[in-house]
Amino acid sequence: MEPAKSCNKCYVSLHAPDDRLPLERELLTDIRTYGGLLKPSDSLFELIMQLEHAVLTSTVNSQIHTMLLFDTLERLTGVELQRVGCEVHARTLTASVVTFYMICRMHFTCADANKVYAETKRRKRDLAKQAKLS
C-alpha cells in the first residue's frame, strides 16, 4: 500500500498549500502549465534538489555507463536526505520518491545520450556519403 494514497498527512505533506503565494522558483512552471500543476512542498522541493545535485555531479564529467545509477546513489551515502510524509510513513514515502525520481532521471539521461549518439552517427554517415561523392 502506498503511504501517500492511504495517509492524508502524507498526501498533504507533498504539496504546498493552495492558498500560498507562488514562490519565484514556481513562476516558470505556472507560466508553462497555466497554473495546472500542484506545487511541491518545501520538504519535497529540498529532497528533489538533493537528488538532482547527486545526479548532476555524477553525470557532468562522466560518460553514460551501466553503473551510473549506482554511482549516483553512492553519492547520497552519508547525506541526510530531507524526509517527506508523516512520522509513521516518512521513511517509506521518502524511499518511494527517491526510487521514482532516480528511475525517471536515469531514463531521461539515457534518452539524451542516445539522442546525441544518434545525431553523431547520422553526421558521420552524411560525411562519409559526401566523401564518396567528392
Q: Major beta sheet, specifics? A: none
- Computed over alpha carbons, the radius of gyration is 20 Å
How many strand elements?
0
Order of helices and strands: HHHHHH
Tell me, rounded to a whole number, the average pLDDT. 88
User: What is the general shape?
Assistant: elongated
Helix content: 55-70%
Percentage of residues in strands: under 5%
Lay out the secondary structure.
Blueprint: H1 3-6, H2 8-14, H3 27-33, H4 42-59, H5 68-75, H6 90-133
Helix pairs in contact: 4-5, 4-6
What does this entry look like structurally?
The chain has helices at residues 3-6, 8-14, 27-33, 42-59, 68-75, 90-133. It is built from 6 helices and no strands. The relative contact order is 0.13. The mean pLDDT is 88. It starts with a helix and ends with a helix. It is elongated. With 134 residues, it is mainly α.
What is this entry, summarized?
The protein is mainly alpha-helical. The chain has 6 helices and no strands.
Considering the chains and any ligands shown, give keywords for the structure:
about 130 residues, mainly alpha, 6 helices, elongated, Flagellar brake protein YcgR, flagellum, cilium, cell projection
